[in-house]
């Protein structure tokens, strides 16, 4: 470019070059462009003119100027300025939309499917267990890990349970629930809660050490751990461990000071953790096994498909007129995860 040309013409020419490069694929979104100095030297103009050219391109939304970094070609759309959460939402939306279209689903069908899942997640799902504390632990973890509106339901007569949760498409319980047979005949689906193998492994490692201490969040868990120890279901132990109930033990610190190794069971209340600050302690984070969570998710999908079918007209069609046979079936109908019976804690 000639220095004798007006600055506006230089800007126009530079802009045309970059736009042409974008169109031909020479410039990629997010790519760093030549510096102001490089542009000035290559085009035989002063740096002030080159900087003005880039300012023009920035005003038009073609480039982004980053202080002490350089000039970059903007990415398409608004994703460059969006937050990480917005980019995550956009990626999910794109995958869902494109995946649905590839299956031949129209947008209305996809919307009704998602609405069906959301409705099931908002429905109160009872966690049936004779011990209220254990029921609360399971319900809390289901709320956190599956985003399910799980509610503890302890000491319920079956008739009252059925009346209060008549809209629940399934229930969650433990394998040793005395009402299991009655529940299976009353509710379409019963999901059994089982312990995470990682939790049992951590328990065995702790119990293998001398002066082991296990702090349980409730009497039901404490008694089941103690029973499993006495029955030898956690292996032969050379040393007698101590198992305490955090809800009823008045002097936890005395036990902690006497212990060489400590396991804090998931769900222990926060003030117990504060008392253990400064002490080495194993803290497994998860109570429930992955097969249990997978069974809950499968139950949600099956219930959502049932609701979707009830709210849709016969012969649901996709965007290209195909019948609803193109809608994939629910992932699984095997809802009862195999209990980890060797532990004796949920069996």
Explain the overall architecture.
The protein is of the alpha/beta class. It contains 13 helices and nine strands. Strands 4-3-5-6 form a four-stranded parallel β-sheet, with helices on both faces. A three-stranded parallel β-sheet has the order 8-7-9, sandwiched between helices. Strands 1-2 form a two-stranded antiparallel ribbon. Strand 5, helix 8 (180-186) and strand 6 (189-192) form a beta-alpha-beta unit. It is elongated and about 90 Å long. Residues 315-344 have low confidence and may be disordered.
Number of extended strands: 9
Low-confidence stretches: 315-344
Strand content: 5-15%
Helix-strand pattern: HHHEEHHEHEHEHEHEHEHEHH
> What's the gyration radius in Å?
31 Å
The pLDDT mean sits at: 82
Number of helices: 13
What global shape is seen?
A: elongated
**Neighbour order of strands in the largest sheet:** 4-3-5-6
Give the CA-CA distance, first to last residue: 83 Å
| Helix/strand class | alpha/beta
- What share of residues is helical? 40-55%
Biggest sheet character: 4 strands, parallel
Observed structural traits:
single chain, 347 residues, alpha/beta, four-stranded parallel sheet, 13 helices, 9 strands, elongated
Short description:
The protein is elongated, with a radius of gyration of 31 Å. The protein has helices at residues 7-24, 36-43, 47-59, 84-103, 107-122, 132-146, 158-164, 180-186, 197-207, 219-230, 252-258, 270-275, 290-311; strands at 63-66, 70-73, 125-128, 150-153, 170-173, 189-192, 212-216, 242-245, 261-264. β7, α10 (219-230) and β8 form a beta-alpha-beta unit.
